[in-house]
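Troubleshooting: if your tokenizer reports a length mismatch, compare your output against this known-good record of 213 residues.
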Amino acid sequence: MATWKEATFTVHSSLAIEIAWTIAPCIIVLLLVWPTARVFDWQTLLFSAALCVVGSGLLYFAVNPLTMWLTFATFIGYAVIYTVILKPLTPQNIVIGGASGAMPPVLGWAAMAGNVGPEALILFLIIFLWTPPHFWALALYRVEDYRKAGLPMLPVTHGNEFTRLMVLLNAVFILHAYWLWRDYSDLLARKTFRFSLIHLSLLFAALLIDHYV
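Known-good structure output:
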């Protein structure tokens, strides 16, 4: 069985390789885009496909097949199911699509342990439940941008007051959500959005500290 130091070295080495292979396509795309300062559809597709292929190969051979397949499923879930299908179709897009954004702890667990344990699923659920009110707070003060883009985010389809109620009912950062529900302003929506980021970071930091204390 590998020691903690050996496992950490393996993860760091894999990360260094992946970063190197990620930078290379970025430089290529930059050289293609530089003359016009515009990104075309074919360049975006080429870039994303290159990252998917290279990243999948690295995960399969340098980490383990389980992590590769889970990451590939996450890629399809976010890039295709959420972005292409759900986002322009339903105001529940972020509720369903939030599953992809909640996958990183599962991927990290699979990379280190070679399986998906109940602990990883608990971390997944924490982010999954945190995601909708987090993004609805953002959508509240960016509602006109979403409306112009034709995207049916909750404030566009159901209005400001209903969205604030949903933030309140779904939010674990309850105090900011309550203030947002009672007395809305764009400034308060921004503060709620920023606090949700801090809240999740502190929560996972506390879990990490608890592991070593």
